[in-house]
Amino acid sequence: RSFTSMGFKVQVYIYDLSQGMGRTLGPALIGKPIEGIWHTGIVVYGREYYFGSAGIESCPPAGTLLGNPLDVKDLGETEIPPEVFNDYLKTQSQSRFKGEKYNLFKHNCNNFSHETAQFLTGQGIPQHILDLPNEFLSTPMGQMIAPMIEQMTPSGQNIPFTMGDAVERLGVPEVSSTYEEVVNNHANGHSSTVSSNVKVFPVKSPILLNNPLNIEGMMKKVEELNNEQDEQNRLDENELKLFAGVAKGIVRLSEENFAVVEKGLRWKEENRFPALDLLRHKCLHLGDTESQVVDKIVQYLVENLSTGETNAQLSTAALTNLVAKHGHSKLTKVDEVMERASTLLPSSHKKLEYHLTSLVHNLSIPHGEGGSNLEIHVMLVSTILTSLHSSVQQAESHERLLICLGNALHGGREEVVGLASLMEANNFLQKVEGKVDAGMLSEVKSMLNN
Fold first, then answer.
1. Among this protein's residues, is 283 annotated catalytic?
2. In whole angstroms, what is the distance from residue 56 CA to residue 48 CA?
3. Which residues pair with 38 in a beta bridge?
4. Which residues contact 414 (CB under 8 A, 6 or more apart)?
5. In a designed cystine with 305, which of 44, 68, 340, 403 is the match (CB 3.0 to 4.6 A)?
6. How many CB atoms lie within 10 A of CB 256?
7. Which residues have C-beta within 8 Å of that of residue 116, sequence separation ≥ 6?
8. What are the pLDDT tens digits along the chain (450 aa)?
9. Given 59, 107, 109, 283, which residue is catalytic?
10. What does the alpha-carbon distance between residue 253 and residue 287 come to, in Å, rounded to a whole number?
11. Do 405 and 162 form a contact (C-beta atoms < 8 A)?
12. Count of CB atoms within 10 A of residue 426's CB?
């Protein structure tokens, strides 16, 4: 087992991205050999965790395209439970180690490994790995070629790893309390095998579309568009201040104040985007908003799924956030939402596809003590296998649909498994093979066919 009576074993896997070429090219580039261009990952609880431009990701140990690590260092043991570590990763993935904050020289995989190791064991990774960027940048040649190297740095889907479970997209895979791990000595070049019964499903972490509002830019646009409206729907000076107050979060979204936002939702279809973006943001913070206001919000969002791709994009984002934060209970028109949403694809707007499949992902997540809703899972399986799976184009979208199917199948309800089999879910699984995480795919196949 990967843990003893004292705690869980923690290791750092060390890879040389240059595959030994640093020692050869170093003298010509910066005047001295470079032992390696280091990439590291922290291995704990049967998973390898690393950071790149896609954010924090995880995979089975040595499961990236880099193969076996050049070296493995034992960092000791941690008594931190997996669920506490999961919370730590979720927080870090939305803040310090969000994908957009990745920087090759200043905030990279090794900084993540160092801080994560300190969190788990109190000690970091070898200092020479952390020192490499400053050592490189301290030379004249290093300063000259650094911009070129940054431009060549792989990003997003092109990063030289498997597309693991990205915490920003999928949340943290649930760690099983028992698993077996067999890892031979990587440092001596021996082969390794890792077998694990770590379970991904059910995925419980929702996707949040929480880009901050540009309130100053929004209000300039609202004032500009407001001048074009008829008298009935034009906002007066006090209403403009209320609209801005709601956007800033200093004015409560009461029924009376929502009437101001409602005017913006009755503008011409091409002018509604500021009010819809406001709802996208407010759906993260509905809190104790009156139920009648929430019902009105849902009504407007569903209506605007059919009023152009920009409005549909913002409406699906708002619905995604509403379900993420408040579960199915706040979304009373799931069947109508899915019926309309499934007609929006295929689309040339990648964000629309992203938001729609994020909504499907969030609908599949169990909420509250009652867990998952059988009726919703049946509907999601039906929608995915009849229309959505043939309409999406991005690998991430296939992965989110796979997660939805896995969540629906988890628990082995006969109605869901039977429907998925009847609708030839295996054809969908065959189609996404090579586009999604292999471990996740294998687990869904097992649930479907057992």
1. no
2. 10
3. 16
4. none
5. 340
6. 10
7. 42, 49, 92
8. 343 444 788 999 999 887 777 777 777 666 777 888 889 999 998 899 999 877 898 888 888 778 889 999 999 998 888 888 888 898 888 888 988 888 888 899 999 999 999 999 889 999 999 988 887 777 777 677 667 665 544 443 334 444 455 555 455 554 433 333 322 333 333 333 333 456 788 888 888 887 788 899 999 999 999 999 999 999 999 999 999 999 998 988 999 999 999 999 999 999 999 999 999 999 988 877 888 999 999 999 999 999 999 999 999 999 999 988 877 666 667 888 888 888 898 888 888 999 999 999 989 987 654 455 788 889 899 999 998 988 998 888 999 999 999 999 997 888 999 999 999 999 999 999 988 888 889 999 999 987
9. 109
10. 10
11. no
12. 13
Measured CA distances, 18 to 22, 26, 35, 197, 322 (Å): 6, 11, 9, 33, 45
Provide the 8-state DSSP code for 399.
Answer: H
Q: Which residue has the tokens 């309800």?
A: 413
CA atoms of 130 and 111, how far apart (whole Å) = 7
Q: Is the dihedral of CA 177, 372, 376, 275 positive or negative?
A: negative
What's this model's pTM, rounded to 2 decimal places?
0.59
The amino acid that residue 420 corresponds to is: A
How is residue 119 written in tokens? 């969190």
Burial class, 182, CB count within 10 angstroms (exposed 0-12 / middle 13-18 / buried 19+): exposed
Closest Cα to residue 341, out of 322, 316, 358, 362?
Answer: 316
Compute the CA torsion angle 266, 267, 271, 276 (nearest 10 deg).
-20
Interatomic CA distance for residues 293 and 309, integer angstroms: 25
Tokens 């049946």 — which residue? Answer: 378
> DSSP letters of 247-293?
HHTSS---HHHHHHHHHHHTS-GGG-HHHHHHHHHHTT--TT--HHH
Distance, in Å, from the CA atom of 131 to the CA atom of 409, rounded to the nearest integer, reads: 47
Cβ atoms of 405 and 447 within 8 Å: the answer is no
C-alpha triplet 167, 172, 178: angle, nearest 5°: 150
The reply to whether omega before 27 is within 30° of 0 (cis) is no
End-to-end Cα spacing for the chain:
26
Which residues sit opposite 71 in a β-bridge?
Answer: 14
Q: 146 with 105: CB under 8 angstroms?
A: yes
Maximum alpha-carbon separation in the chain: 78
Q: Phi and psi (nearest 5°) for 170? A: -115, -10
| Rounded Cα distance, 160 and 152, in Å | 12
* 114 carries an active-site annotation: no
Instruction: Give the angle 153-156-160 at the CA atoms, nearest 5°.
Output: 60
Helix axes 425-432, 414-422, angle to 10 degrees: 70
Q: Which amino acid is at 84?
A: V
